Inverse folding.
């Protein structure tokens, strides 16, 4: 049966996604649960009453997510928990479910978009973001955080470098 499933990343939990009020199925990766220690008690409660489920991605979906993230230049920005979260969404999607990934992370959104996974941000006021620019090489996938913008060529392979903005949640 086709089900509507919400997959939450760490930021979605930290921003207070209303798990208790949601009638659809909500899943998270085990690694994400380990990341949000400050919300452990509430997550354990939701797990116990069956409001929230721990999910595991398939190995092939993890591989697919990593391949796409490397292609888009987002791989270095993703934690293992992020990769698992996107891969879980992809796993459920491939099983024919209606999946929505809840995330405010640009890199996760970018990779999800490439994989045709629907996503929804949960931005509320008062959340602090840090925007940083990263210069990356589309040829050899090297990342340069401190490179002079005027150097347009990858020192490793000679490919033309690209730049993109990365927005990261800042938890004070
Ligand atoms: Zn290069």
């Amino acid at each position: 049966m086709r089900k509507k499933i919400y997959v939450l990343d760490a930021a979605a939990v930290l921003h207070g996604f209303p798990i208790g009020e949601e009638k659809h199925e909500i899943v998270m990766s085990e690694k994400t649960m380990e990341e949000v220690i400050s919300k452990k008690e509430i997550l354990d409660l939701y797990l116990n009453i069956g409001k929230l489920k721990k999910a595991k991605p398939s190995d092939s979906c993890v591989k697919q997510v990593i391949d796409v993230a490397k292609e888009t230049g987002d791989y270095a920005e993703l934690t293992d928990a992020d990769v698992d979260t996107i891969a879980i969404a992809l796993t459920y999607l491939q099983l024919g479910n209606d999946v929505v990934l809840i995330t405010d992370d640009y890199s996760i959104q970018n990779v999800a978009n490439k994989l045709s996974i629907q996503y929804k941000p949960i931005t509320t006021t008062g959340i602090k973001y840090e925007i940083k620019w990263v210069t990356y090489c589309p040829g050899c996938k090297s990342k340069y955080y401190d490179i002079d913008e005027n150097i347009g060529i990858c020192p490793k392979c000679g490919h033309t470098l690209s730049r993109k903005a990365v927005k990261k949640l800042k938890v004070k």
Summary: The chain has six helices and eight strands. The chain has a mean pLDDT of 87. Strands lie at 4-8, 25-29, 53-55, 98-102, 118-120, 128-136, 143-144, 162-170. The CA atoms of residues 5 and 148 lie 44 Å apart.
